[in-house]
Amino acid sequence: MMELENKNSEDIEQKKLELLEEEGGAYRALPGILGLIQRGLMCLIPLTGILFVFDVHSYFGWSIYTEQYIGLFLTYVLVGSFLSIPATKRAPRNRLPWYDALFALGGFPAGMYIAVKYPELAMNLSQVTPASTICGLIAMVLILEATRRYVGGALVICVIIFVVYGRYADMVPGAFKGYSMPWDALINYLYLDPNSLLDQISLAGGIALAFLFFGQVLSTFGGGTQLMNFAVLGFGRYRGGSAKAAVVGSSLIGMISGGAITNVMIAGTVTIPMMIKTGYKPVLAGAIEAVASSGGQITPPVMGVAAFIIAEYLQVPYAEVALAALLPALLFYLACFVQVDLEAGKLQIGSVPPSAMSNALSVLRSSWTIFPCLAVLIYTLIIAGMDGSSAGLISGFASIPFLLMSKAGRGQFWRRILEVFEGSGRMAVNMGLLIAASGFIVGVTNVTGLGFNLTYALTTVGKESSFLLLMLAAGVSIILGTGLPTVPAYVLVATLVAPALVEMGIVPMAAHLFIFYFAIVSNWTPPVAPACFAASVIARANSDKIGWVAMRIGILAYIVPFLFVYSPALILKDGLLMILISIAFAAFGTFMLGVFLVGYLFQDVPWSRRILFLIAGAGLMFPLGMGKLSLIINGIGLVATIPLLIWEWFLRRSAKLASDNEPLLGSPVTSELVD
Which of 154, 310, 607, 675 is most exposed, with the fewest beta carbons within 10 Å of its own? Predict the structure, then answer.
């Protein structure tokens, strides 16, 4: 039996390693001098970005175009990709094949042509030369091949379709007929124009790189562990405390980890076994972790990389994006909390045992250093109003001395510093690839007039039904998100669909957050659901079953975007009174919806009454911004809610179901570990 358990543990660790490698992208480890070059290049990526963001070159009297830095960054991305990402799963991981060496060398003309020649090219970007065409074609081929290796063929096929459309757009019949360009002019535009590849990849080389650096500092020096310690301390002593701690801790780690799979593997190794031991079924434990890990990207004040890109698109301070996302995120996690608490009551699950928890003084002593780190980021982003690149880097460097004060952050300082730079470089390569590929689509959309045509076509649909247009946008976001990480999925849909939403009168912030939410929910939406697949490895449960339960746990992420589109008060785009009323109605509606989904309040709720909870919850959550219809439906929900709750309380008392191990929502209880 012991040998079997050891074998299972080894299988899990191996699968975890494979998943983390796939998420991180750079998983070929080269030996000898090539290994030193590989690791040195990864470290050079964030180092170069730091020097450029802090304008170090100006102290030496050097004048450098941003595009020149981006050309150098593109070189790093392409060379690093082919050094690190094997062509296939069967390709060698401990040596560099000759063809990958050639591909890596090809990255130099593709990127360095821009880095060296851009001051001359800037004088006449529309001029097509053989050199720019050849280097542009090399860049395009290498980006697409590296992207195929990293995320598969879906995005590559999408890019190829758009590029072919850019060449033959004038031959497309109907509403999508556009302006076409010869191959050499099209390649030149996609390669050099500021509205195409360069514009998009600058996001990866700037804001994304800085944020990834900050996240790597926290995770490498023990910041993630500290966040989880506080989550367990704050919620572990309540009913269903293990799951509540998982929701809070995973959301906090998810703000900084940069990827759903990575977060599940970091936080889930602690939270999933803890939930299972206290009584949650493996499928439910995996679903809770998958949803909480993915939801960190919508949680202020840090959020994910895509939030910074939203700020760039809308040309607003990041603080405005974070404030707008605050209430929807709170509602999302309220829905998670309500369900895990009611599940705990239904399954008779108590708190985390005292033996598994540290006392408050011990946690404060070991984990207080995470607060100054987050405080610095909040100050630089929101109070000082710095740009995202500077704020992320300053916060990262400022966090190191604080984290060194904790026991978990001490030891092997230089090794950890090397890990921070190397890890940041690996993640920047992956992010750069995906955004570069998306940049070709953005470029074609701009140059052919497809953006205008698509906006017109979708607006025509929206005239018939704005709800239909929103459903279309949600569907496209989820479909793209099944094969792509959040950032490229958001970028694509924001380029293609967001203008139509804004044209229909939807508040721009609401339109972009709408797309952002549905790009995230694809992480736990079957059939792909990568976060659920990662959780299934730890929970030892079927990933498809985890996915369907995760949809129920995270159901509000499918609903809230529609709410704040029709009721902008939920993103703080209305008067104070309307905001307060919207919060109250949405919160009570979320609670009623949770009762319907779980089928439990003070005791089991049969389907006959669960339907009434659904009606009451839907009525309360109906957007307030739709005139008399809102008043009628909200009124029905409110009238239904009060007697329902009173009736359930009466049934509880009459059946004498009140007991110490079934307290009211959120009351402290204790339990022992389940074998």
Answer: 675
DSSP structure class, residue 672? P
Token reading at 170: 């004038």
DSSP letters along 544-559, please?
Answer: HHHHHHHHHHTTHHHH
User: How confident is the model over 242-293, as pLDDT tens digits?
Assistant: 788 888 877 777 666 556 776 777 777 778 888 888 788 888 888 888 888 8
pTM score, whole prediction: 0.77
- What pLDDT does residue 4 have? 32
| Separation of CA 611 from chain center | 33
Contacts with 146 (C-beta within 8 Å, 6 or more apart), sequence order: 77, 78, 81, 82, 85, 103, 433
194: phi then psi, degrees, rounded to nearest 5: -60, -15
Q: What is the 3-state secondary structure (H, E, C) of 154-206?
A: HHHHHHHHHHHHHHHHHHCCHHHCCCCCCHHHHHHHHHHCCCCHHHHHHHHHH
- Quickly state the pLDDT bin for 12 (edges 50, 70, 90): very low
Whole-number Å distance between alpha carbons of 670 and 664: 14
Q: Reply yes or no: is the peptide bond before residue 527 cis, omega within 30 of 0.
A: yes
Contact 561, 474 (CB under 8 A): yes
Helix (H, G, I), strand (E, B) or coil at 123: coil
163-181 residue pLDDT tens: 999 999 988 887 788 889 9
d(CA 84, CA 93): 8
Token pair for 119: 């001051």
Alpha-carbon distance 110 to 146, whole Å? 13
Dihedral of the alpha carbons of 634, 637, 639, 643, in degrees to the nearest 10:
-160
Write out the H or E segment, with its range, that includes residue 82: helix 66-84
627 backbone φψ class: left, alpha, beta (φ>0; ψ -120 to 50): left
Contacts of residue 591, defined as CB under 8 A and 6 or more positions apart, other chains included, come to 334, 338, 617
415-435 average pLDDT score: 89
Q: Which of 296, 264, 150, 337 is nearest to 537 (CA)?
A: 264
